[in-house]
Amino acid sequence: MARKGPVYRRKDSPYWWGWYYDSKGQRIPFSTKCTDRKAALDAVKLKEREAHAAGGAATNTASHKVGEALAYLVEVGASDVAPATLQMYAKKGGHLLRLIGPLDVNELHVDDVQGYINERQREGAANETIKKELVTLRRALKLAKQRGLLHRESAACFPEFRAKYVPRDRFLTRDALSLLLARLAPERQLWVLVAVYLGARASEVEAIRWDEHVDLDRGWVLIPGTKTAKSRRRVPIAAPLHAVLERHREAVGPVVAHWGNVRRDLHKACKAVGIEPVSPNDLRRTFASWLKQQGVDSLAVGKMMGHSSGRMVELVYGHLDDRTYKSAIEKMPELPDIGERSRDVTERRLPMRLESRLILPGTPEDGEIAGYLVPRAGIEPATRGFSVPCSTD
What we know:
With 393 residues, this protein is an alpha+beta fold. It folds into four domains: 3-60, no CATH class; 66-157, DNA polymerase, domain 1 (Orthogonal Bundle); 174-324, Intergrase catalytic core (hpI Integrase, Chain A, Orthogonal Bundle), CATH 1.10.443; 350-393, no CATH class. Helices cover 49% and strands 7% of the residues. It has 19 helices and seven strands. The chain has helices at 37-55, 57-60, 66-77, 83-100, 110-122, 127-146, 174-183, 186-198, 202-205, 210-213, 239-246, 262-273, 280-293, 298-304, 311-317, 322-329, 340-347, 352-355, 366-373, and strands at 3-4, 7-9, 16-21, 27-34, 214-215, 220-223, 233-236. The strands form two sheets. A four-stranded antiparallel sheet has the order 1-2-3-4, with helices on one face. It has a three-stranded antiparallel sheet with strand order 5-6-7. A hairpin with a 4-residue loop joins strand 5 and strand 6 (220-223). Helix 14 packs across helix 15. The longest helix has 20 residues, at 127-146. The protein is elongated, with a radius of gyration of 33 Å.
C-alpha cells in the first residue's frame, strides 16, 4: 500500500485508511469509511482532535502554541547552529508566527500547514522561501517533541511540498564593479572589495580582524568560517586587494565596519549607476566567476570559498562570460579537407528502393513498395507488427 500523508489505500478495502496520534503519542490506524480522499482527510483531522480533547491533551497537558515553539527555537534551542542560520530561523519564523502562531502544536494538522503554504504563495513568496520556512517549523516541532510538549510525530503535520532551487546567475563585470565602487563611501568600498576578492560570505567579511586573520607580509587571509567549522580556510590576497589593505597596515580590530543595511544600500547604489542590483552573495559569486573565466579548477575555487568540493562552484557560483564561450569555440578544429568526395556524395541520387519509400500509401506503386518493405512469409520472417496476404488466399 502506498502512504502519502495521513491517509492511504489498502488493497483489501474500498475505503481510505488513515492514522492519528492520541494524547500519549501512540499512532492509531483506522478506516475512515470514506471513498473520497478529501472526506477521509477531514475524518482524520476530526479523530485527532477528538482524541486529544477526550484523552488528555486538553486536560492533562498545558497548551503549547506554535509561536511558543518557534520562540524557544530562536532563543534557546538553536545554540549549535551558525549565527547566519539562527538569523534565518528568526526571519522565517516571523511568517509562521503571523499565520499559524496561535495554533496548539498538538492540534496542528496537515491541512493547517497546507493552508499556510497556499497563503504564502498567494502573498507572492517563492517556493524555495516557503521551503525554508517549513524547515524552521519542522525544527521547532522536533524540539517541542523532545521537551514532551508535542505528543505525536511532527511528520504527520507536513504535506508533500517540493521546491526546485534555481540559483541566481548575477555577478559583476570589472566595469560594473568600478561603477559600483565609485558610488560608495570609502568604508563601504573596502567591504565590497573584501567580499569580491576573498569570496567570503557577508558574515565572514565582518568577522575578519587585522590582528588575528590578516598576514600582509605572507599574502594570506585566514577566513573565520561562520557557517560550519569546515568553512574556516586560508585564501591568498589578490594583488588589487593587497594594495588596498596595505594602506591600513597599522589598523586594529575588524577589517570592515558592520553594514546593517547592506542589501538595501547595494540595491540603491546599483540603481543609481544603472546596473542590475547585486546582493552580498552576488559579490561572492563574482569571485568564483572571475576565477572560472580564467580557467581555474573548480575544486580550488570551492576550497577557497569554504566548500569541501567544487560541486557548488559548478552548480551555483561559477558563471562564465561571453568572452570565455567565444574563446572556447575558437578552439574547435578546422573543417577536414574531403575534396572531390564531398561533391560526388551530394550529387548522387538516392537508391531507387530508398526513394520508393517516399511514395504515399494508396498510389499505384504502393503494393510494390509494401512487397519490398515487408517480405512475404516463406522467404524470411515477416516484420513484427505487419501482415501480408498469403499466396493461397
